[in-house]
Every structure is written in C-alpha cells, then in structure tokens.
Amino acid sequence: MPSRFESVTIPAPDRGWRPAMLILLVSVWLALAGNLPLWRTVWPLPELAGARGVAFAVGLFVWIVAALHMLLSLIAWKGLLRPVLLLLIITAAANSYFMLQYGVVIDATMMANVANTDVREVRDLLSWTMLLVVLLLVVVPGWWLMRQRLTFRPLWPQAWRNLAGAALGLTVLLLVTLLMFQDLASLMRNHKQVRYLVNPLNTLYASGKLAGDAFFHVSKTRQPIGLDAHLGAGPAAAGRVPLVVLVVGETARAANFSLGGYARPTNPQLERLAASGVGQLTYYSAVRSCGTNTQTSLPCMFSHLDKDAYESSRQPYENLLDVLQRAGLAVLWIDNQSGCKGLCDRVAHADTYNLKLPELCNDGECYDEVMLKDLDQRIAALDPARRARGVVLVLHQMGSHGPAYFRRSPPAFKAFMPECTSNVLQECPREQLVNAYDNTILYADHVLASTVQWLSSKPQADAYDSAMLYLSDHGESLGENNLYLHGLPYALAPDTQTHVPMISWLSDAMRDRLGLRSDCLKTRAADKLSHDNLFHAMLGLLDVKTDLYRKDLDWFAACR
Ligand SMILES: [Zn+2]
C-alpha cells in the first residue's frame, strides 16, 4: 500500500500538480524573486555577518516560505488558488519594482496612497525598467502558472489537506521563530523598515490594517474633554503664576537610578540637589508605566482615562494638554525625539531637528540639554494673556533610547567605561552594555538638575512659582534573561520594562502655594503610583478645576 503522503509530495505529471506542491513552489518564488529589496537591504547589515548571519538569512527565508505556505494552504480551492497565486506574483513584482526603484516601503500609509493614486501618476511611473521587471517577474512565472494542470481532491479530503498544509506551515513558522527569536527581534527593532520589505506579507498586512482602521475608526474626530476646565481662584490672588515643567523621559528604567537604590552613582547631581534644601525633590520608588513602548505609553500617560479604560477605548480623545490650554494656560511642547504622537497637535510645539548647534547636535540628533537652550525666548514668544495665567512646558527627551545608548550621552558624561558602541546588543559584553546605559542615566541626571537650576534662577524664580515633574515612558531590558530593549506584551514584560522612575521638584514658593506638607511628601514617595496619576497630579499642580479631576489619583492632594 502506498504511503498517504507520497501522492502529496511527489507530483505525478500525468495527473497534474497537487495544490500543496504548487503552493510550496510559488512560496519559494515569492520569498526569493518577490523579495529582492529585502535581501538587498539585509545583506550588508552587521546581523548577517559570519556563519551565524548565513544561518539567520536561511532562517529568515524559511520563515517567509512557511508563513506564505500557511496562508496559501487555507485558500487551496479549485477556481480560487490559481487566481490568488497569480495576483500575488503580480503584486510581489510590483512591490519589488517600486521598492528598488523608489526606495519606498509598503506600509498602511503607502497603501492608502496607492488606493488614491490617479491615472496621471501611474503613467509617470511607467518606464522601460518596469517593462523588463514585468516581463521577468510577472509574465514568465505567470505564463508558467497558467499552463500547469492542477488536481484537487474532493471537498473533505481537500479540506483536510489544506488544514494539514496550514498546520505544517505554522509549525515550521513557530519553530524558526523560537530558534531565531533574539536575532529576529533585534533585526526588526534596529531596522524597522525591514518588516515593510517582507513581500507580499507587507501588502497583505497593510491592506488588512487599512481595512481594519477604516472599520474601527469610522469616526476619527477627536472627542473634546474637560469643556468645563477653568483656573481656580489661587493664581490670580497670589499675584504670581505657576510654571510647571513636565519632562517626559525615554526608556529610563527605575532599576538604574541611584535615587532609587541602584548601587552605582547615576544620580549625583539630583542627590546633591535633594540634600541642598533648594526646594523639595522627591523620588517616587514604585511607579508603573502604562505600556512597554512609546506609542502605547505616551498617549496613555496624557489621557484622562486610566490604563484599562484607555486600552479598551476605541474613541480618540483630547488629552491633558488640551485641558490645560482650555483652562487658559500657555502650553508649549518641545520635542527632542521622534515627535509627540499627536499629543501636541493643538498646542504650541517646537522640535529640535533644525537647530544648528555643533556643541549639542551632530548627525541630525541633539543631546537633551538642547531643550533648555533659549527657553526664556521660547516662553516669551507664547501668548502673553495665557502666560500671565501660568505656563506649562513639556520636554520630550531622547533619554536612553536604544539600541545605540552610547549616542545619547556626551563625552563628558561617560563615567562608566568601556561602553558598548554596537547596535547589535548581543555582541557586547553585558557590562559594556550596562555602562553605555548608565551613562545615559547619568546624563539625564544632569539634564534634570539643569532644568531645576534654570527654574530656580532669575528671571524665572522672580516671576513664577515653579515645579518640575519627570516621568519615564517605559523601562528597558539590558540582557536579563536574554531580553533586550523593550516592547514585550505588558503581561509578559519583566519588571525592568514597566517599573519607571518619577521625580518631582517643587520650589518653596510652589509648595507654599499648594499648601503641601513636606514630611507628608516624603512618606508618600513609596506609594504605588502609575501613569494613571499624571493627568490628575498635573491638574492639581496647576489648580485647574474640571469634573475630570480625580482627587484620589492626585498624590499631592493627599499632602495638603
Ligand atoms: Zn519610549
């Protein structure tokens, strides 16, 4: 009796191709010819150097074939399979061509562009090269595909084969993922654009996301919040107005702050400041982030909703900054990172990209101190009527953004040496990685201390009752349990990715203004807090009255 699998794996020419075999062949073709830009991009990368690199490249290839095989097995039906394969060959060829020719990557935005392209634009894109590509990558394989005879089984046997094919693809996919998880994760993090090069999975994903977004966000309009927001009587009566600087940290983890008990002296300046008696500095030792990456944490931090409500909400809302502005305050966001994720769209904002300051900026990136540069002028340029009621500055740091930690600290702050200078973190000895990271924290310490110094010097100290609040967006893994960077699903994320540092500094005038008891703040520093508290603490600090305010989440309020 012949083996049951023999007829599947060995095509009998007289009966034509079994779908599983044809799917495998087309998957291999798509992984190779349909992915020329991917292979061209990853080949020179350091991740692909040496024997380990070759193994990784083979793994990546098997990974793509397995993913395609899994998906295509599910649609191996008579009358459906052949047109879909043909369509994939065409889209893969088109993708390859556009990516090679124009360097564009296929993501949801690009798909939206394609969907909106008019005939004139298409004509502009036609060329002889394109004809050649079409001939080689579409006509030849397409013609071959159309000529092949396909033999399907009856309904149920075919259904079982399809499921088995998908299961096999999934198994291989999972196996390869498990074997290469670290390398894959490192590649995708260090070279984000790579994921958009995996053809045609990128097109399928982008189309799906586009359709999904269109379906779920039928109403894209941002819901206004805090329409009742207004300032309390305090500011006008006192004659002086508040100036609050909110510093949004990046990838700073609590575990490496000496203020929180870390053995290395990573916070010397802030520790000196705390001991000096200039205002009151508090380090909060038990603060949790909302997410494990910037995209999740940042909007959640500024949201009036708590973590659970924020995550289950499909409706986009305005944020803290809108409420502060609505109450009449002057709000300014200064960005030294990849942007404010839409948070600062309706308030004054500035970024540091176009600054030409050789002592602080190089290679299109600036050290975080750049945000303190000319701050007086920036404030002076804000609406005077608002400024007269109070000023809120948000400084969005580059902080400890990985994997190139060594780029985030200037030479003068490289106290922990030698440091890792590779983007491929696994290649560095762990001590060097931690050194590079600790240098970024040492520099952040300096930036925060300088911010306080600026607040407590003239003319700021004369005009304002000032405060600084520092809170990091999420933590980081530095090789513990072979994990690097951040972004693990929250439930699986280690403590180091979600336990974040938070620091407040209040000038004596601000503490008096709020009627805060300083011994109370000290005892509260170990309270369990999270990103959920930020919205309410900021409203409390700035005396903004609204129904959204929850006194139980404003930890300052408990000390009045
Ligand atoms: Zn981040």
What is the count of DSSP helices, taking H or I runs of 4+ residues?
A: 24
**Which CATH class of the largest domain is shown?**
Alpha Beta
- Look at the structure and give the mean pLDDT: 86
Total of domains:
2
- CATH superfamily of the largest domain, called what? Alkaline Phosphatase, subunit A
Structural class, please?
A: alpha/beta
**What level of helicity do the residues show?**
40-55%
Poorly predicted ranges (pLDDT <50, ≥5 residues)? 1-12, 116-124
Roughly what fraction of the amino acids lie in strands?
A: 5-15%
| CATH architecture label name of the largest domain | 3-Layer(aba) Sandwich
Q: Main sheet, how many strands, which sense, barrel?
A: 8 strands, mixed
Rg computed from alpha carbons, rounded to a whole number of angstroms: 28 Å
Strand order of the largest sheet: 5-4-8-2-9-12-3-13
CATH topology of the largest domain: Alkaline Phosphatase, subunit A
Bound molecules: zinc ion
Distance between the termini: 86 Å
Number of strands: 14
Overall spatial form: elongated
Structure overview:
There is one protein chain. This protein is 46% helix and 12% strand. It has 560 residues and is an alpha/beta fold. The chain folds into two domains: 6-216, no CATH class; 246-559, Alkaline Phosphatase, subunit A. The strands form four sheets. It has an eight-stranded mixed beta sheet, with helices on both faces. It has a two-stranded antiparallel ribbon with strand order 1-14. The protein has a two-stranded antiparallel sheet with strand order 6-7. α6 (108-115) packs across α11 (201-216). The longest helix has 26 residues, at 430-455. 42% of the residues are buried. The model is unreliable at 1-12 and 116-124 (pLDDT under 50). Zinc ion (ZN) binds at residues 250-251, 293-294, 473-474.
